[in-house]
Design goal:
The protein has 234 residues and is α/β, with parallel strands linked by helices. It is built from eight helices and twelve strands. A hairpin with a 7-residue loop joins strand 2 and strand 3. The longest helix has 15 residues.
Length: 234
Amino acid sequence: MNGNGKLILALPSKGRLMELTNAALAAVGLAPTRTGSARGYKGEIASLPGVEVNFVSSSEITQFLKSGAVHLGITGEDLVREAMADADQRVRFLRRCGFGHADVIVAVPACWIDVQRMADLEEMAPGYRRAHGHQMRVATKYMNLARRFFTQRSVTSYRIVESLGATEGAPAAGLAELVVDITTTGATLKANGLRVLDDGIILKSEANLIASNAAPWTPELKAIEDALLAQFGA
């Protein structure tokens, strides 16, 4: 990811997040363009010649920010906080982008009428285990966020089941009893017979412009960052 002295900015390479990111940057005169092949992974911003753009997946952006392979990146806060327990030390959240909204939540079967809050999960856990012969299972792709949140809420009687598909379908399929997942409108959760606990919002996420503290910053690169932020409207 050598930028030859340039500030390296990692942007999403595909999907809706790529479209929204490109549109937001274009709206403030920072439209990224690909260099070489139209399907290539390198790019530039005409108004900021000191920037090299790398087009990569959202999860790769998170890893590159963590390692310092890029200086800046735009990706979801949920991905960053899942990958880094110490995110506030490893990166700087420079600006919320206003798109890519998704809440990371804890959802239980709608029929669990006596379970309204996280504390209710711990209270019901012994009886559940006696009745079913196993701990409550939590299906999720957000294993680290889930564990940290459950620990903060003093919920210990559960087992994580890594979700490799549609997480919200895990309870109906008999693979888990509850889920930690992302939601935007809640419609998919409702369609699968699930509801969010009253205190079950782990993170209200959206796309952020993020700086890596592990990247090799120089005064010249910091000046480019300041210019980008000024044009971005920070």
